[in-house]
Design a protein that fits this description.
Layout (H helix, E strand, L loop, with lengths): L1 E6 L6 E6 L18 E8 L6 E9 L2 E7 L3 H8 L14 H7 L2 E2 L19 E4 L2 E12 L5 E12 L2 E9 L6 E3 L11 H6 L8 E4 L3
Antiparallel strand pairs: 1-2, 3-4, 4-5, 6-11, 7-8, 8-9, 8-12, 9-10, 10-11
């Protein structure tokens, strides 16, 4: 079974859907020992506006490769021809570990719904790892030529009486990721350091954004 939180393309409501039966698998997990490459279409209905939402689960070499929704005709043809859009940050830690720390990839979403084009407003509520967060501030990361590279949102939640803040990193073809609030530009010390914080690439610029 795949558990996925989907933003309705019609009304914007976020709903959790369980696709299939049995144990829960996430993006990057091996789901087929026979190393099958295929995709399956699930049709769900938005409980708020009754919009029919088409969810495509892509399996490549036996692994959950990507999850998409509401594709254009050309994108459907690519899937039928075995051309699957790749993600560049499949999780290395278990979902339970990431959820417990509120760090890492939130893999129970449709990644393309959280691309660098996704705009959240300050004060807006968002949901990651089963927890509601409030957007505190918004930033854009620009390449040396001025192109949009990523969006960063500083978000906050409260667990019992403890306040927790994180940076939400959104990039095209990446799973949305939570990082510690750390603006250091130092090189990563090790793999765990890279897991917990985001380093803005050298010569890139970060600016506060209102859109």
């Amino acid at each position: 079974m795949i558990e996925v939180n989907v933003i309705c393309p019609e009304c914007g409501k976020i709903t959790k859907y369980n696709l299939g039966d049995g144990d829960i698998f996430d993006l990057g997990d091996k789901i087929d020992p026979n190393k099958k490459t295929d995709f399956k279409i699930h049709i769900v209905s938005c409980p708020n506006c009754d919009e029919a939402i088409y969810i495509y689960v892509l399996i490549k070499d036996g692994y959950i490769y990507n999850i998409l929704n509401d594709l254009r005709f050309g994108q459907k043809l690519e899937l039928e021809n075995g051309i699957y859009p790749k993600l560049y940050n499949y999780p290395e830690y278990s979902y339970a570990t990431r959820k417990n720390m509120f760090l890492g990839e939130e893999s129970r979403v449709i990644p393309s719904q959280y691309s660098s084009e996704r705009i959240f407003r300050v004060g807006q509520d968002v949901s990651f790892f089963g927890t509601d967060w409030c957007v505190l501030s918004s930033y854009k990361v620009l390449t040396p030529s001025g192109e949009l590279f990523a969006r960063i949102y500083k978000i906050r939640t409260f667990v019992e009486v403890k306040q927790i803040e994180r940076l939400l990193i959104l990039r095209n073809n990446f799973i949305p990721t939570l990082k510690e609030v750390n603006w250091s530009t130092d090189s990563y010390k090790d793999d765990y350091d890279q897991f917990r914080r985001y380093k803005i690439p050298d010569d890139f610029e970060i600016i506060m954004s209102t859109f």
